[in-house]
Amino acid sequence: MEFRYLGNSGLKISEITYGNWLTHGSQVENDIAAKCVRAALDEGISTFDTADVYANTAAEQVLGDALRGERRESLEIFTKVYHPTGPKGHNDTGLSRKHIMESINGSLTRLGTDYVDLYQAHRYDFETPLEETMQAFADIVRQGKALYIGVSEWTAEQIRAGHSLATELGFLLISNQPQYSMLWRVIEPEVIPTSEELGLSQIVWSPVAQGVLTGKYKPGAEPPAGSRATDEKGGANMISRFMNDEVLSGVQKLQPIAAEVGLSMAQLAVAWVLQNKNVASALIGASRPEQVSENVQAAGVKLDDAILTKIDDALGGLAERDPRLTKSPETRLV
């Protein structure tokens, strides 16, 4: 495992971050989830990402239980706040001071830790003044409940405004957590240049495009039984944008490229996002321990310019690059 600095901070995180979005507390039994976390630790992963909304707080509890007994100082534990949790009442969502302060305490209890290394605004909140949100984050940092603050799926303009307030309030905004893959490149035109200027890194999710870049979905064929594309509760709606023959045919062209560099297609996809110097870490999830062991092989891989060009040629104009697709809900629905 290799490690990279997160933004312009002194915090190092593993190039591969283990995340438990669609698995822990919902799709995978707790004993299997614990084995996946153990596999991550055995492979040298030190960074773990979750959120209070995942399985309506259950994912944090599962992760906390799985990490219990590990040396806390050797781990980087990240979580997030914004989406509705608990009974999803009128104040159980968003980035108000009330919700943030209550949410950090709940997250720390479930995770079994006194602090998180990174606390992230899961989306931008149009209904709460940004000054209120950033003041709450500043207070959490001063209280020692979070060491650093990050955001997720914020636009370049929102990142710039948040960074300015964080600087005024005396704390560091060091990261953004966006979707990023060979097929979803909307952060490249605006978010990445702004982040490089201001000293933020990306912690990217879905580097294999919800499984599409593994090559398991074939053009003209039904999705494999039990796959994400068939699971209405596990991301079928999100993956649907890629489930057309044009995209799937393009993805199949990556197979010989992966073979040329001695990687599986999934490993190639994860390695590809890590070639971007502004990416500090790629988030992977798993429903089986062996998936962790496979994907972690992408750490430390260097793809030369010729291979990157072949990938671009294979996918042609199939990748989405419109920066307007980076957005948060205009209203907080509960």
TrEMBL record:
Keyword Protein transport: no
Highest taxon of the lineage: Bacteria
InterPro entries, per database record: K_chnl_volt-dep_bsu_KCNAB-rel, NAD(P)_OxRdtase_dom_sf, NADP_OxRdtase_dom
Protein name, as recorded: Aldo/keto reductase family protein
Keywords: NADP, Oxidoreductase
Domain NADP-dependent oxidoreductase: 15-314
Family listed: Belongs to the shaker potassium channel beta subunit family.
CDD domains in the record: Aldo_ket_red_shaker-like
Organism: Saxibacter everestensis
